[in-house]
């Protein structure tokens, strides 16, 4: 099977960050001008005409795709950051990691009630960070209209956490 431009632009690194893990590196797609443009264009095609008010991009690589997409579809951009990185009043959500927890925050005035919000991140595995992002947007009474990813690691079944929302991913990796 021939790989498409996006899939071919994603580097796979064995045993990173630890033995047994096959890491999918999206930075090689980002530096490839045609592939980066194609990824943003494909996401824009999916969400065009949905009257999205804000795109929420999850730290860090979700910022790259989310901000470019927000610009392309004429929406505002909201950065979802790790705890302690935003200068004004925030709301926070804590989520489980393999060992311990982490916390995400957004400014408390980032999303107005009933605004249509699209969540964008680079990669879906277990869905923990996006679950926390959903919690943040719901605390501010935003209306989540979809969740988009560049890469989906299907075997982790993260998509199953988001049955309530339309989920799109551009490249799906199975096994390996």
Description of the molecule:
The protein has 176 residues and is α/β, with parallel strands linked by helices. 27% of the residues lie in helices and 36% in strands. The protein contains five helices and nine strands. It has helices at 5-8, 27-30, 33-47, 61-73, 128-139; strands at residues 11-14, 22-25, 54-58, 76-82, 90-97, 100-107, 116-124, 143-153, 167-173. A seven-stranded mixed β-sheet has the order 5-6-4-3-7-8-9, with helices on both faces. The chain has a two-stranded antiparallel sheet with strand order 1-2. Helix 3 (33-47) crosses helix 4 (61-73). It is globular, with a radius of gyration of 16 Å. The model has no long low-confidence stretch (mean pLDDT 95).
